[in-house]
Amino acid sequence: MQAGHKGVLAVEKTGHAFSTLKANLLKNGEHGAGFDWPDSIPRQQHDIIELLANHQHALLALRGTVDLIAGGPPCQGFSVYGDRKPNDLRNALYKRYLEVVELVRPRVVLLENVEGIDMPFVQKRANSAPKVINTTAARIKKELKTMGYGSVAFRLCSSEYGVPQVRPRFFIVAMRDATERALALATNEEFLESERIDHMQALGLDPAALPTVRQAISDLEITGKTRQPCPDTKGFEQATYGGPLTPYQVSLRTGMSQLQAPNSMRLPRHAATTIAKFQLLQDKGQPGYKIGNELREELGTSKFRIHWLNGDRPAPTITTLPDDFIHYSEPRILTVRECARLQSFPDWFEFHGKYTTGGELRKVDCPRYSQIGNAVPPRLAMFLGRYLESLVEQDDLFRAEEEASVQEEHALAA
Hints:
Blueprint: H1 15-24, H2 48-54, H3 56-60, E1 68-71, H4 94-104, E2 108-113, E3 121-123, E4 131-133, H5 136-146, E5 149-157, E6 168-176, H6 180-186, H7 189-202, H8 213-217, E7 227-229, E8 237-239, H9 247-251, H10 272-284, H11 293-299, E9 307-308, E10 325-326, H12 336-343, H13 368-373, H14 378-413
Helix pairs in contact: 6-14, 7-14
């Protein structure tokens, strides 16, 4: 939407995530053009398997009206931070994604995932050598080809696109009946860099600079600020908001008054012992890095991924777990809004549903921290929207030139 496009249909599996989508993007407004949601498909959360089972004819009716399908299968089974089991059921959900593509037949397909989707699985076997299984990305590209889509794959890092976070991700871009020249252009370094510079300049940012954590969230520090009750959670507090302090913060506050607080600023209620551990971490740790084994043992934790953020650098990849990150100057975890800032969500974008969940509920819930950690950073999505529009325009131009050349050859032959 920030790139000028309009939604048609969205698939959110959980009620929490759908409530956030509905509150922000489904209606026309100052922040987007809304969705042309088909009347034949209920405006509610949908599991993609259920959607295909119950609304196949409605999806088929969209054929010829959709320019782009963007999305991606769950990343947990591919992530190097997980077990990377080749038989993880979630790994096969890309097939359902491609079923939607086959029904709708959009002009362009965009698929996003962690880099592990382009890594082979190694399956251990008891009495024989390990079996190497081809990458899921390669299988996806092969299936797209059988449907008439030429495709390319590449990696982008969010910090180079106006996001204060080092978040490398893998993308597949496919175009129906694409010209070879367009596919070559899609990964051309000069073309990508030109599009990136245009994107950064449109944001009012220096293409050579990387936004930092402090530039993103310094106005949300709580030291020296009064506190007030959190409006959406009884018994919790949030700090008063005093206005933006940096150009990055100003750029994310379109439509907000100077002192208007964004939602999801709820502060954690840390026990005194937890605060003491965070202070110890900040005394002995190294900002910008995960804690080492010695400090982990001193803290009495077995948790592997705990980052003390460096305020003067981009953050590492924001995850769905709030206790993965400790604030750069205060002994606490980040608020939902601070995570959203590091993902480049604008302040007008409100998050709904639970803040956190745990245990078995993590398999079925999508609380606010998870909604943010699972997202593609909006500014990276904005770049992709502009890049794909430019690519389609070039493909049309190449196609017209090829057709004109063929007609000229026929005329000469006649």
